[in-house]
């Protein structure tokens, strides 16, 4: 398989560079002892992207709200007024008084984040509002899938100018993953990885790692995501190094090494083989007391926190020059579901939007803290995506599928404390909104993704145009939310 | 009743379902008895068919199929009543409550599902219900129904009862089912408010089209896309969704008299006319519904239009093929099945018994496999086939009548959970193509969407627990899961080749490759003399269960 032999050539090439890159201890184990007596060294110039996918379509216009009275009143009216379980159960707006504690400001005016964005206490960790105020979190307002900028008149007159299959979960999610509006098997994350992975020492481990399941975002031409769970890696039971266990291991390996007439059987063998190959390496790092441990407390009962904790551990392991990963560029993917709230959006229960955003805020705050523990806050940029935002107007107790949304970018290299893009006027059937308050985006996926690609080292315009064929349709390929 | 003329659409046959037709019409056996001429030629052929058509072959079922032939086997399956889940769950629930315990939970629902899969007589009916549950998805991962296992069991029974009936009847029953109503939020969906600020919920309107009937783009009978100027043609736009949202308004509990009252039961929903949008609507294909119709008429007409759409035959047929025989059916295969959907041979359209018969008896299913044919086994079907291949001994029912099967959270290990997918898009999507050789060959591979370095090991390790470590004769056997009967292997003593051949017969319908056979025989041969015959037997069962050849049915 050509991909494999290319990666082996790269691996051998990198081995020879390992000595000059300070990775000698991987070849001469006794150097490990010297290494532990000195400060831990990390791969120089390391950078990583972490994609946090909100599955179901986040009701983003309750994540970022206008706070000045005039614009707030428009917001509340479009959402049928402030929610009250007895007097106004169909309302979707949050009371302005409830937004006082999460106020933020931007040059474009006064805003507030959802009340769930406050700091976590016990232990004290920043929430999304604090991160914004510290300049570590940026917001992108009214971002969505586009072929090119489109006015409301064009939306109505020329359906062909709209991105395909608007409002369909699976199709819109796919467009966010692939960064273009024509069909593609590859995601923009995988394509970035194709171009920047050559500096990674261990090429058997993909630069793209998913803790959040299968995804198209991380698939490139020569890159395929390695998937692991938030619990780490597991060995195949019943296969070992002695006795009957050993004989079973031998037989299994023989079956995995065979080639099959069926591509389905071949692929199964390949996946199980890769899993076993990487198990021993990663397990030694992730074992209790190993290099890949972080002490930061993460919230419990929080799947996003579980996933991000494993990301932090893998980042730590991957940067450590005494361990045999030594990646200079990585892309991670995590995923949290439950956002498709046609019903019970305003419920205060576990499945309501407020609780979901609390989990998001606390998970990201813990992740930020863990990155501080491992000295990687400036090296890791985390960003959110979701297939679409939701209708401003209510369906009686929830919202339906919409379009332009709000994304977040978090990191030490981010120019945070600002809102990028344009905050839309929130009347229904307004200048940039359709009848139910679906917003025509002011900013495209391509622009956000290209800005992140650039930070990861993909700067040549030819490369960016290859990954994002619609990029030239937009006024700028750099939204400016990363520090220069 | 005001029926909408379907003259718009070319191939519209009868719209009225004919329930009885599916069960009694059988071209081979009308008014006469003949010796079957469609006997499987070997145990291997019979076992391969049963792998496709049941939760896994058993030696007894192989023998029975060989004696009566495919058509008679199917006819008998069509006539078997459904093994019901809801009455069982109600009984367990009542017993728990009267003993002062908390009532039945989703755990008991899962136990029942596994038990029926492992032992139920109505194997094909239950397999088809499982396949339909992956198209007409509801899930206990949704908070609105996660606490309602009895109601969800009724939904399963609806699928099972209608598995060999008419698809139009099936989408009627699922549309009016309260669990579906809550899952896709048309339950208590109201018409727009007078000021227009509140609009009807669009969830069911969209998914009933995108996933349950016609899909996103116009298709030929063989599922290939119809193109206009080289581009696919959408079947509907957002306006159609908004209009269907108005159709699905007013639903509430069976005994409700307003949009807010009523008792929570599994019974068919009723419709509150005062909450129903009775305005004129423009639906799929530009078909108008006049103003002033009752809710049941609006819903019936709306569903009739979807059922009459030419897409429904290839859209549903292709997905059912993918659940039974092959992930990448040829256009010709899809077309032959879709033709049976459109006309079962007796003028009925939507007869699922004719569809499943064609799927299983089609030459593409019965002929020897080609390199690209077949499909990865669904993860849970690997487990059920293991139990059935080895005559697993079921646990005894507990004091409340529940039989614990030991697997109440299969999502973490198998990535599948009956009526428990993460989203309405099921565990895996029909169009998924695994990147690399499979996608490059233009093949589809839905089951690979959830098969990765992590899940492949968690499934293997669960098969270790339920295969290697759950057998009759073990010391301290668990009493809450099935135990494999490994005696057919241990009886063979030190004849290692015969052991491997028996595992081949029971788990791989004789298709084991020479290389795999050698590897397994060698494993047994090179184990130390003090390794027990039971451990050797279990080793073979386990190695086959996690092998690439077992992973893919061909």
List the helices and strands and how they pair.
The complex is a heterodimer of chains A (484) and B (554).
Chain A: H1 2-18, H2 31-37, E1 47-54, E2 64-66, H3 69-78, E3 103-106, E4 109-113, H4 128-133, E5 137-144, H5 152-157, H6 169-178, H7 188-196, E6 208-210, E7 226-227, H8 243-257, H9 263-286, H10 303-319, E8 329-336, H11 353-373, E9 380-386, E10 405-410, E11 419-421, E12 443-444, H12 445-455, H13 461-467
Parallel strand pairs in A: 1-8, 1-9, 5-11, 5-12, 6-7, 6-8
Antiparallel strand pairs in A: 2-4, 3-4, 5-10, 9-10
Chain B: H1 19-24, H2 43-53, H3 59-68, H4 70-79, H5 86-98, H6 106-119, H7 123-133, H8 149-161, H9 167-175, H10 178-183, H11 203-210, E1 227-228, E2 231-232, H12 238-247, E3 251-252, E4 270-271, E5 281-282, E6 288-289, H13 295-308, H14 312-324, H15 331-342, H16 352-361, H17 363-366, E7 375-376, H18 379-389, H19 411-414, H20 437-440, H21 453-468, H22 487-490, H23 496-507, H24 514-526, H25 533-545, H26 548-551, E8 552-553
Antiparallel strand pairs in B: 1-2, 3-4, 5-6, 7-8
Helix pairs in contact in B: 2-3, 3-4, 5-8, 6-18, 7-8, 9-13, 11-12, 14-15, 14-16, 15-16, 18-21, 21-25, 23-24, 23-25
Name the descriptors.
heterodimer, A: 484 residues, alpha/beta, nine-stranded mixed β-sheet, 12 strands, 33% helix, globular, B: 554 residues, mainly alpha, two-stranded antiparallel ribbon, two-stranded antiparallel sheet, 46% helix, disordered N terminus
Explain what you see.
The complex is a heterodimer of chains A (484) and B (554). With 484 residues, chain A is an alpha/beta fold. In chain A, 33% of the residues lie in helices and 12% in strands. In chain A, the strands form 2 sheets. In chain A, strands 1, 5, 6, 7, 8, 9, 10, 11 and 12 form a 9-stranded mixed β-sheet that branches. Chain A has a 3-stranded antiparallel β-sheet with strand order 2-4-3. The longest helix of chain A has 24 residues, at 263-286. Chain B has 554 residues and is mostly helical. Chain B is 46% helix and 3% strand. Chain B has helices at 19-24, 43-53, 59-68, 70-79, 86-98, 106-119, 123-133, 149-161, 167-175, 178-183, 203-210, 238-247, 295-308, 312-324, 331-342, 352-361, 363-366, 379-389, 411-414, 437-440, 453-468, 487-490, 496-507, 514-526, 533-545, 548-551, and strands spanning 227-228, 231-232, 251-252, 270-271, 281-282, 288-289, 375-376, 552-553. Chain B is globular, with a radius of gyration of 25 Å. The model of chain B is unreliable at 1-32 (pLDDT under 50). The chains are: A alpha/beta (484), B mainly alpha (554). Chains A and B meet through α6, β7, α8 and α9 of A and α11, β7, α20, α21 and α24 of B.
């Amino acid at each position: 398989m050509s991909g494999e032999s290319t990666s082996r050539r790269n691996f051998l090439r990198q081995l020879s560079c390992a000595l000059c890159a300070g990775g000698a201890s991987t070849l001469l184990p006794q150097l490990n002892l010297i290494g532990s007596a000195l400060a831990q060294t990390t791969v120089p110039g390391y950078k990583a992207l972490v994609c946090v996918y909100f599955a179901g379509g986040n009701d983003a216009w309750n994540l970022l709200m206008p706070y000045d009275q005039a614009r707030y009143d428009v917001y509340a009216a479009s959402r049928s007024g402030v929610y009250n379980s007895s007097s106004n159960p169909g309302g979707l707006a949050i009371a302005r008084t409830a937004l006082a504690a999460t106020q933020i400001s931007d040059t474009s005016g006064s805003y507030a984040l959802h009340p769930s964005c406050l700091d976590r206490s016990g232990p004290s960790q920043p929430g999304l509002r604090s991160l914004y105020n510290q300049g570590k979190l940026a917001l992108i307002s009214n971002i969505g899938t586009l072929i090119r900028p489109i006015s409301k008149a064009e939306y109505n007159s020329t359906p062909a100018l709209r991105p395909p299959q608007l409002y369909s979960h699976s199709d819109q999610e796919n467009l966010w993953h692939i960064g273009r509006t024509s069909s593609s098997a590859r995601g923009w994350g995988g394509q970035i990885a194709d171009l920047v992975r050559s500096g990674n020492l261990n090429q058997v481990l993909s630069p793209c790692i998913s803790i959040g399941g299968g995804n198209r975002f991380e698939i490139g031409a020569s890159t395929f995501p390695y998937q692991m769970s938030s619990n780490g890696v597991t060995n195949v039971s019943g296969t070992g190094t002695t006795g009957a266990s050993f004989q079973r291991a031998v037989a299994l390996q023989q079956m995995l090494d065979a080639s099959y007439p069926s591509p389905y059987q071949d692929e199964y063998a390949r996946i199980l083989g890769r899993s076993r190959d990487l198990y021993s390496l990663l397990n030694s790092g992730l074992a209790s007391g190993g290099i890949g441990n972080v002490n930061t407390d993460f919230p419990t009962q929080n799947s996003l926190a579980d996933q991000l904790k494993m990301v932090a551990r893998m980042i730590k392991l991957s940067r450590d020059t005494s361990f045999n990963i030594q990646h200079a560029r990585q892309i991670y993917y995590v995923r949290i579901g439950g956002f498709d709230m046609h019903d019970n959006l305003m419920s205060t229960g576990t499945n309501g939007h407020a609780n979901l955003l609390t989990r998001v805020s606390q998970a990201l705050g813990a992740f930020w803290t863990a990155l501080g523990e491992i000295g990687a806050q400036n090296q890791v940029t985390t960003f959110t995506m979701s297939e679409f935002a939701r209708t401003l107007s209510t369906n009686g107790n929830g919202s339906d599928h919409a379009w332009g949304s709000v994304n977040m970018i978090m990191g030490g290299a981010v120019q945070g404390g600002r809102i990028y893009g344009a905050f839309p006027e929130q009347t229904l059937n307004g200048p940039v909104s359709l009848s139910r308050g679906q917003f025509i985006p002011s900013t495209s996926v391509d622009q956000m993704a290209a800005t992140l690609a650039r930070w990861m080292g993909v700067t040549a315009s030819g490369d960016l145009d290859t990954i994002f064929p619609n990029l030239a349709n937009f006024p700028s390929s750099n939204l400016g939310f990363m520090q220069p | 009743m005001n029926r909408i003329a379907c003259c718009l659409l070319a191939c519209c046959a009868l719209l009225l379902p004919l329930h009885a037709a599916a069960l009694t019409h059988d071209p081979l056996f009308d008014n006469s008895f003949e010796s079957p001429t469609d006997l499987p030629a070997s145990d291997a052929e019979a076992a391969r068919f049963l792998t496709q058509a049941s939760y896994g072959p058993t030696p007894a079922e192989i023998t029975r199929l060989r004696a009566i032939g495919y058509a008679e086997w199917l006819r008998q399956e069509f006539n078997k009543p459904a093994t019901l889940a809801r009455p069982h769950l109600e009984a367990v629930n009542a017993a728990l409550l009267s003993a002062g315990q908390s009532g039945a939970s989703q755990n008991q629902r899962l136990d029942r599902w596994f038990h029926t899969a492992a032992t139920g007589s109505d194997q094909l009916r239950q397999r088809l219900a499982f396949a339909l549950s992956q198209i007409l998805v509801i899930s206990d991962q949704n908070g609105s129904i996660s606490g309602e296992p009895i109601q969800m069991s009724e939904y399963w029974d609806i699928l099972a009862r209608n598995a060999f009936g008419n698809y139009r009847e099936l989408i009627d029953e699922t549309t009016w089912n309260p669990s579906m109503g809550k899952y896709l939020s048309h339950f208590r969906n109201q018409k727009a408010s007078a000021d227009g600020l509140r609009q009807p919920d669009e969830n069911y309107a969209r998914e009933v089209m995108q996933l349950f009937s016609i899909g996103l783009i116009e298709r030929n009978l063989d599922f290939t896309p119809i193109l206009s100027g080289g581009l696919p043609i959408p079947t509907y736009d957002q306006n159609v969704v908004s209009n269907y949202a108005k159709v699905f308004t007013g639903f509430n509990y069976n005994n409700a008299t307003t949009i807010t009252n009523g008792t929570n039961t599994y019974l068919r929903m009723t419709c509150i006319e005062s909450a129903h949008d009775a305005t004129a609507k423009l639906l799929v294909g530009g078909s108008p519904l006049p103003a002033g119709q009752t809710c049941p008429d609006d819903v019936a007409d709306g569903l009739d239009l979807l059922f009459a759409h030419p897409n429904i035959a290839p859209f549903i047929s292709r997905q059912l093929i993918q659940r039974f025989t092959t992930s990448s059916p040829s256009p010709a295969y899809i077309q032959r099945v879709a033709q049976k959907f459109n006309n079962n041979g007796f003028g009925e359209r939507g007869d699922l018994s004719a569809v499943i018969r064609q799927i299983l008896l089609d030459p593409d299913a019965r002929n020897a496999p080609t390199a690209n044919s077949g499909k990865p086994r669904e993860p849970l079907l690997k487990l059920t086939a293991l139990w059935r291949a080895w005559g697993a001994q079921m646990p005894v029912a507990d004091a409340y009548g529940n039989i614990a099967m030991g697997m109440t959270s299969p999502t973490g290990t198998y990535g599948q959970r009956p009526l428990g997918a993460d989203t309405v898009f099921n565990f895996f999507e029909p169009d998924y193509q695994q990147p690399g050789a499979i996608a490059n060959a233009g093949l589809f591979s839905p089951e690979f969407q959830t098969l990765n370095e992590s899940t492949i090991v968690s499934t293997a390790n669960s098969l270790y627990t339920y295969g290697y470590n759950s057998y009759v004769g073990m010391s301290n056997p668990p009493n809450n899961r099935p135990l494999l009967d490994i005696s057919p292997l241990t009886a063979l003593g030190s004849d290692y080749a015969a052991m491997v051949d028996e595992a081949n017969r029971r788990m791989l319908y004789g298709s084991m490759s020479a290389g795999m056979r050698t590897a397994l025989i060698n494993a047994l041969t090179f184990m130390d003399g003090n390794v027990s015959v039971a451990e050797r037997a279990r080793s073979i069962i386990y190695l086959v269960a996690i092998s690439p050849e077992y992973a893919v049915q061909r």
